[in-house]
Write a structure and sequence with these properties.
The structure is a homodimer.
Chain A lengths: L1 H13 L1 H11 L3 E5 L8 H4 L7 H22 L2 E5 H5 L2 H17 L3 E8 L3 H12 L2 E3 L3 E3 L4 E5 L4 H14 L2 E7 L6 H4 L9 H13 L11 E5 L4 H10 L5 E3 L9 H5 L9 E5 L1 H4 L10 H21 L1
Helix pairs in contact in A: 4-6, 4-14, 7-8
Amino acid sequence: MLKIFSFRSLAITTHFADRLFLASQNKAPVCVGIDPVFEKMPAKLRDQTDPNCAAEVIALFEEFTINVLQAAANHAACVKFQSACFERYHHLGVDLLQRMLKLANEMGLITINDAKRGDIGISAAHYGAGCLGRTHYSDLGTHPGADSLTCNAYLGEDSLQPLLDVAAKEGKGLFALVRTSNPGGDTIQNLVLAEGHTVCQAVATMIAELGEQSIGDCGYSHLGAVVGATQPDQAVNLRVLMPRQIFLVPGFGAQGGGPEDVKACFNDDHFGAIITASRSVIYAYQTDPNKNWAQAIDDAAEDLSQQIQSILKG
Amino acid sequence: MLKIFSFRSLAITTHFADRLFLASQNKAPVCVGIDPVFEKMPAKLRDQTDPNCAAEVIALFEEFTINVLQAAANHAACVKFQSACFERYHHLGVDLLQRMLKLANEMGLITINDAKRGDIGISAAHYGAGCLGRTHYSDLGTHPGADSLTCNAYLGEDSLQPLLDVAAKEGKGLFALVRTSNPGGDTIQNLVLAEGHTVCQAVATMIAELGEQSIGDCGYSHLGAVVGATQPDQAVNLRVLMPRQIFLVPGFGAQGGGPEDVKACFNDDHFGAIITASRSVIYAYQTDPNKNWAQAIDDAAEDLSQQIQSILKG
């Protein structure tokens, strides 16, 4: 009986949606996207670095990322790592990503590995174990993995199930790509089906059904959805189809989404969405070269947080 | 074994499709899939390995993979690495994958990184550089990267363009997921559109158009398609929609596709498809425990090659 009781009480705090709900209340429902690119690094760091030496670039990325994490810890519920930026530097980049995921957790941040994985069967299970699961090896030590992972749903529900199993077991989450904000996103996602819905609406329906497997006390699922913030009508419609999905909303700031686009993604509880901004925060020093670069990032993260909070109040 | 070296010049062989065409003529249009999983490794290797030490598992995978590459080099045009199996072991696995891609090239094999990547804008460019492109760093040395990469087309044509740019520049290729062989593949891919086609047929049309950017002398594009081998009617239809795409066809053997399913994927030139088998080849020793494990893999690769050649002749 004691075991059941502790499991239940533990489950209340460990469900991914509940953790994200709490963090959003404590700070703001915003996410800082970490997409380090050598050419865009602060000149002071870049000038000391040989771009042809991967270890030097990775050391630069580490110093940069630690500062971004500090800014995010001050103002945001979570951080999203763009896996491609790290994978580009092969094993050195992958090692840094794992270490930064761990550090972000230690700084109180919820992490998203924006790796957009999607595979079937045992391969999906491997992605679940490698990208999302906690790992312990005698030589590598313990790594928490990411708290959540972005994933591609084109391969169908059985491609997501192995990831959902890891997520449910470890109090972690997924964000399935439903509607993306790039110009070419329309080509497949906006095709109209014979039954009247669009393709992305069919994906949304599949995600809503799959997400019923695990709903937190806050009313949201461990399976969320990536929904671009550039078309408010579509966001309203997808909100109806996916009432229990937390929307991860890129496209605010640099990609062009504005306040009304963002508001459409939230529910009446002022939750149900996490607004993510990458370039407009982490490269904020580019528009204000006189400011200390780390301070510029912190200011931009604070500004993002305040903008979203005032949109929600308005 | 059939060995026909054709008249084609060096310049011609640098297009990915032409390289694959030649390799398929020299050996057979088959691919050995390398999906190493600790629990399935030969008992002799596994018993010497501590599964809790990542470096020991990776050393085991290296010995295993080298033997698989030798078998593939004897009988197959190419090898396909399941990235998830390597990524599971974090930076150690990613490092091994890079080294094995290089070794496979040195053994005369064309490589496919089955990583199913898909992202937009600069992130897609990073995947192109990191997964597909040649790299040189003063500390990491030169790596050829993969000759080709599997990718997900749900995000639309602009998500594929940065990958296509790398492929065109470096004589490499892509295989976009069109129709997968898993049971849940139907859920999105087989939905019927208002205009009459299915979603995967719309993806196929997009892929065929994009692939026109770069056609080799053999008549095929650097942009191929993943088409599961379990529904011959669909394969025939997709062949019509994508006449210039090389089909990467999983599902032969372990996943249930048979000769007729496979035949439907080829064109009259006996090319246009690469049949890939993973478990039925690399774990062949499981069904014949008295045979030396490396010999069992070689025999299974030879058997696969002969089966496909006789299907093409029949």
